[in-house]
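chain below, 443 aa
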Amino acid sequence: MRSLSLRLYGVVTWLMQPLLRRKLRRRAVAEPGYAVAVEERFGHYPTTPGGTDWCWIHAVSLGEARAAGILIEELRRQAPGIRLLLTHGTATGRDEGAKLLQPGDVQVWQPWDMPAAVARFLDRFSPRIGVLMETEVWPEMTAACAERGIPLVLANARLNAKSLASAERLGWLARPAYSSLRAVWAQTEADSHRLVSLGANVTGIFGNMKFDAAPEPRQLATAANLRANLPKPVIVFASSRDGEEQQLLEVLKRFGATAPVPPAHAAIKSIAQRVHDVQWMIVPRHPQRFDEVAALVEANGFAVARRSAVNQDQGEAEIWLGDSLGEMALYYGLAHVALLGGSFEPLGGQNLIEAAACGCPIVMGPSTFNFAEAAELSLAAGASVRANDMEQAVKLALQLVADPARHEAMVQAALAFSSSNRGAAQRTAEALLAIAEPVGPEL
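prediction:
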């Protein structure tokens, strides 16, 4: 019999349906993908291929979908013919997940976490096993899978201290949800301890699957060709978040980036000269902010050239804007140094692993709690440096550009850091198949 707390939670999620529909309509104005197949979010799915041997993988957003892609590639290698059911929660996640599909696979929205929608989802697909990527643990879904005997696992699992505190405040929901999972495979020892404190059955610490991703060779080749012909080295602000671009622009203005190029001196170059000696580039984390950031750059007195404006003269702009998806390897390949987005506001930082795989040195800000262990390991390996604020970060990046020997040492350290942390995808796929295969050979 279900607990009173779970039944109350089910009532609340049912009552929230109108708010969810309104939120989706609003999001669809900026991102049309949120208007696609809305009824799937409430458990109403179109006719799809039959069968009950689905390997269901839930990747809520872009980062999780990319991690899922790494796992899926390894699963197809170990279990050819595996049938995949992909679910997502965001438009960018669904777009990225669509690239992973093969004939016979199915992609739908994750149902809203209320009893009726979850029941319709499980009735329709009856997956052999469910794999939640990284952080997505919902009380109704975990309870329903446990009641039906569907093994549900959390892969590439991470839980920072802030998220743990939030979960503990809702412990009456979180603890039963985490304890219902068949297995949890954590990224780090620290993640494992936090997950266990919520009742999770952590059966392995496998590392971060994102280390197993190889940068797109064509993008790196394109970047190398472009970089060889650029008149200036490039500093990229990668995966920047709201509020951070303004910080960078204010620092550049204080350092004279909007003033005429200062006269050269034979002795040590001034900070203003060094700011003019590099090409600055901003790559926002969220695509719905591309236009907003372009307008922000111009409002601060800078000329901007957008990646999407292929006929624009990129060389005339002080700031380049990377307004495209799926090209981070190109941007990191272009960059001599990258500033780490999400780390200059209290947001926990974005993932620095892809930068390391591209051999791009990183300057990170003070906030990296989302990827705490990866950040500390990269610092220890010499692949990154930490700044206290944006002004110091800009100075450190300029120093790296001006010091070829140190820059090359950090490039090699980044590549070594990336290669030494691989193998999580293979370990995860083996553990997943060990749980799924005893049910039958079809998966």
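Residues 62-78 form the longest helix (17 residues). The CA atoms of residues 145 and 152 lie 7 Å apart.
thats it, cya
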